[in-house]
Amino acid sequence: MNNNAYLLINPLKESSLDLANKIKKLTSRKVVLTPNIAAAQLCLQQELFDAIFLTLTNDQDIQSLIYQLPSSIPIVVVSPIKELASSAYEYENIVDFLLQPSCEARVWRALNRAQYTPILSNTRIEDSYAFIRSETQILKFNFNEIEYFSAFGSYSKVHTKNNVHIVNESIEGLMNILPSGVFRRVHHAYLINIYKITAVDSRSFFVYDRDIPIGKSYQKSINFLFNVKALFV
Q1: pTM for the predicted model, two decimal places
Q2: DSSP H or E segment with residue 150
Q3: pLDDT digits (tens, 9 = 90+) for 17-52
Q4: Are 132 and 100 in the same domain?
Q5: End-to-end Cα separation, the chain, in angstroms
Q6: CB atoms closer than 10 angstroms to residue 70
Q7: Among 27, 57, 138, 202, whose Cα sits 20 to 30 Å from the Cα of 209?
Q8: What stretches of 118-197 show up as alpha helix (H) in DSSP?
Q9: Range of the domain at 211
Q10: Is the Cβ–Cβ distance between 92 and 47 less than 8 Å?
Q11: Cα(55)–Cα(146) distance, rounded to whole angstroms?
Q12: Which residues contact 29 (CB under 8 A, 6 or more apart)?
């Protein structure tokens, strides 16, 4: 985990506060409470989270809710309805099910599962294109259309020549699955298509009129990749 925070999506205030207090006691980490998916998405655009605790009730569309959340963040489903457990486990990034109310030992088990269960990406990569989820849709991007990716909290923005799309993948997740021969991380918040670079100086790459900063920790690998070491003296 990245020592960030936990996000609780829970319209039931009393049970939400009880779970939040248990998580704070067990981890000493920040816990952000939101009443619905729309409010959660705003938080996810501004902050990174280690796990999401999502409360479900019978009248909710589970698939729609899950598909609106980042696919790279582990989700623990929380519900007072035991029958929802089997349907919740159908999705790759759901790592546990908490039946409300839950004791501290059971919450601790869920936190550990969120930390250690591998998450499979919902993004599909082919030879020259990628299928990436954007809310409830899956969008197809040809590699030669993508100029760069930028971090957007727990999501990412895909920048093409004429459009910007928000997708349900973090920069870290994209870096791990996209081909390194095409896309390279040049900053903690940017992943660039190396074939779209039009200029470079000691601080930035340029994609036409767009300035992509170079992070200090990435300069060494970038110098080797582009054989422009003299520019970075």
Answers
A1: 0.78
A2: strand 146-152
A3: 889 999 999 999 999 999 999 999 999 998 889 999
A4: no
A5: 35
A6: 25
A7: 138
A8: 171-177
A9: 124-232
A10: no
A11: 36
A12: 3, 4, 5, 6, 23, 50
